[in-house]
């Protein structure tokens, strides 16, 4: 599982909105502050709004506003919102059909170890709140 550019941009959007407090911030202002391409930010903001993390409005006086506590959302949750199911290996995907297991009719140790590793990664990502990722200086 990689943190994609979309998830990275989402983190930056949330940082900008958290800095703005309860103020509605135009997307252009977020892009300028966070050095993000505007064509992607609205698409990402729509996903964040659909997930109930931000409020998004268009038109005159429109913009984004953070409507949740970043302490309550994990990095794993944000990754799931942005990228859905993106495991560390293709063989971990729900609908994956493994030709090796079919041919040899055995447990695949690669899959077994990757499953264990995926679980550990997910637990670690879940342990970090977005607030920690964005603002905790105690590294």
TrEMBL record:
<protein>
    <submittedName>
        <fullName>Transcriptional regulator, BadM/Rrf2 family</fullName>
    </submittedName>
</protein>
<dbReference type="Pfam" id="PF02082">
    <property type="entry name" value="Rrf2"/>
</dbReference>
<dbReference type="InterPro" id="IPR000944">
    <property type="entry name" value="Tscrpt_reg_Rrf2"/>
</dbReference>
<dbReference type="GO" id="GO:0003700">
    <property type="term" value="F:DNA-binding transcription factor activity"/>
</dbReference>
<dbReference type="InterPro" id="IPR036388">
    <property type="entry name" value="WH-like_DNA-bd_sf"/>
</dbReference>
<dbReference type="GO" id="GO:0005829">
    <property type="term" value="C:cytosol"/>
</dbReference>
<dbReference type="InterPro" id="IPR036390">
    <property type="entry name" value="WH_DNA-bd_sf"/>
</dbReference>
